[in-house]
Amino acid sequence: MGILDRFKHQAKGNRGKDMSDAAERKANERTGDKHERQVDDAQQRIEGQLGVDRDRPEQP
């Protein structure tokens, strides 16, 4: 199972958001924040495809 498969499987809760944030921080760190806007846009698109919605409260 690849990293994206694991992320997709775990993306429905806080852990998915935490993993997404960690990946964003790591990408920004490695690029020296030169591509921060593009990384943020990519993160939002991926979260949208996986069904992670930061605007909605979590449902049990």
Strand element count: 0
Shape: globular
Largest sheet: none
Spans of at least 5 consecutive residues whose pLDDT stays below 50 are none
- The DSSP helix count reads 3
Overall SS class: mainly alpha
Radius of gyration: 12 Å
- For the record, give the distance between the C-alpha atoms at the N and C termini, rounded to a whole number: 27 Å
Mean pLDDT: 78
- Taken in chain order, the helices and strands follow as HHH
| β-strand amount | under 5%
Helix content estimate: 55-70%
Question: What does the secondary structure layout of this molecule look like, with pairings?
Answer:
Elements: H1 3-10, H2 14-31, H3 36-50
Helix pairs in contact: 2-3
Biased composition (Basic and acidic residues): 15-44
Pfam families: MT0933_antitox
Region (Disordered): 1-60
Summary tags:
single chain; 60 residues; mainly alpha; 68% helix
In brief:
The chain is mainly α.
Write structural notes for this entry.
This is Kanamycin biosynthetic protein. The protein has three helices and no strands. With 60 residues, the chain is mainly alpha-helical. The chain has a domain at 19-50.
